[in-house]
Amino acid sequence: MNCPHHCEIYKFKPRSYKDLPVRLAEFGTVYRYEQSGELHGLTRVRGFTQDDAHIFCRPDQVKDEFVKVVDLVLYVLKALKFDDFTAQISLRDPDNKDKYIGSDENWAKAEAAIIEAVAERDIKTVTEYGEAAFYGPKLDFMVKDALGRSWQLGTVQVDYNLPERFELEYVGSDNAKHTPVMIHRAPFGSMERFVAVLLEHCAGKFPLWLTPDQVAILPVSEKYNEYAKKLSGLLKNYDLRALVDERNEKVGKKIRDTEVNKIPYMLIVGEKEVESGQLSVRKQGDGDIGSYSIEDFAKMIQEDIEADLKMN
Asked: Of the residues 3, 51, 178, 201, which is catalytic?
């Protein structure tokens, strides 16, 4: 866990109530010794990376900061069309408090903050007792994969206990010392698990704005490779990501391979395209969609991206 590291960063200098909230974030690598039988592809691994962050705030800021993080997680899920998810309110086991740290008073305040914040957002929730972290309750976003299995991705946690243990302080408006509240947040959670669930969710066909290669340029023979490379450079001016298939293969095979690799657009480059300066365009799944100038082609892709994001 990276929490102690961020606590020490917060603690290295005096803080005023005017400085709060202090927000610290990193892509941190963490490790968990899962037993061999529990390992499962990218969804359950021993070493993974979290988009980890901690927010140190005053008690009166907790609800507002928590709601902002919830909105961030919802934005991430919506942008990637993860519609089948449940927000799980994870509370401590009231019958077995020994495995948790902190006072009943702190736990009551933390749990109330999560319940009140979630009530402000129209999202489906379930409550699970005994699923809280040892230092505080949390809101876990459980997303279903292609087989209907639920995986925890994003998480938000309210913590009154670690700031006390690390003796974190800020000077309040009354000129007295107070303990801040700590919000743990990871909108993606494990990056490895998120990518695994996303790959299955979209069957490898990423949204146009996200896919690593938006355009494949397919020369019909080797003598058009240089022109294809030049075309790739021109597309970069429009912030489009393109690759050139320079293999000495028939164009039919290149088209089939590009379809299998789910690259959204293909540009066929031959003598006609070199002479006319027009682009012969194919769309993944739709086939030939006609000829375009490079400006019109770039505009079409940008409009497709904007339409896709508006749908979200």
From this structure: 3
Question: Is 50 among the residues known to form the active site?
Answer: yes
Catalytic residue flag (residue 201): no
Beta-carbon count within 10 A of 47 CB: 11
Strand partners, 24: 54
Q: How many CA atoms lie within 13 A of 22 on its CB side?
A: 21
Choose, from 50, 88, 214, 284, the residue flagged as catalytic: 50
Domains of the chain: 3-201 (3.30.930.10), 215-311 (3.40.50.800)
Residue range 210-233, pLDDT digits in tens: 999 999 999 998 889 999 999 999
Would you call 3 a catalytic residue per the annotation? Answer: yes
Does residue 310 have an active-site annotation?
no
Exposure of 103 by Cβ count < 10 A (0-12 exposed, 13-18 middle, 19+ buried)? exposed
pTM: 0.80
Residue 184 annotated among the catalytic residues of the structure:
yes
Is 138 designated active site? yes
Please list the alpha-helical segments (H only) found in 122-276.
161-165, 191-201, 225-236, 251-260, 271-276
Contact of 242 with 232, CB cutoff 8 Å: yes
**Whether 90 contacts 128, CB under 8 Å:** yes
Above 80 in pLDDT, residue 234? yes
Is it the case that residue 12 has pLDDT exceeding 90?
A: yes
Examine the residue annotation and report whether 6 is marked as an active-site residue of this protein: no
Can you give the pLDDT at residue 301? 92
